[in-house]
Automatic annotation (TrEMBL):
Name the UniProt record assigns to this protein: Ribosomal protein L34
GO molecular function: structural constituent of ribosome
GO annotation terms (biological process): translation
Organism in which the protein naturally occurs: Penicillium salamii
Region of interest (Disordered), ranges: 1-24, 36-60
Composition-biased stretches (Low complexity): 41-60
Length: 118
């Protein structure tokens, strides 16, 4: 059985700034701007002279909060029309099964509709 490689042992390198920026874990965090919160806009201007400010100035700034960006991150293709699914959801047999569906059929019959449902 193979032993898992300790992730911390891979990250630990000499603590010079150039080696920290070239490490895999740190660069992968910078390459995902959706997951990076906008700390630069919330910090007072007196703390921007710290080493953290140089990293924040390199990171792309966001105009939305994290939760708004996360909700917009995945776009799904939701409109794929199908008559079979339409009949399953809104068809005559689906209306007959449900109590509210039977009410719809009665209302449409009383109104004189030719088509009661799909």
């Amino acid at each position: 059985m193979r032993t898992p490689i300790n992730r911390l042992s891979q990250i630990r390198q000499p603590s010079t700034p150039s080696t920290m920026l070239s490490s895999r874990a740190f660069s992968s965090l910078l390459s995902t701007p959706r997951l990076q919160p906008t700390l630069g806009a919330r910090l007072p201007s007196t703390t921007l002279s710290s080493p953290l400010s140089s990293l924040l100035s390199r990171a792309p700034q966001q105009s939305r909060s994290f939760s708004a960006s996360a909700s917009l991150g995945v776009r799904r293709v939701t409109f794929r029309p199908s008559r079979r699914v339409q009949k399953r959801r809104h068809g005559y047999l689906a209306r007959k099964k449900d109590r509210n569906g039977r009410k719809i059929l009665v209302r449409r019959t009383l109104k004189g509709r030719k088509e009661l449902s799909w």
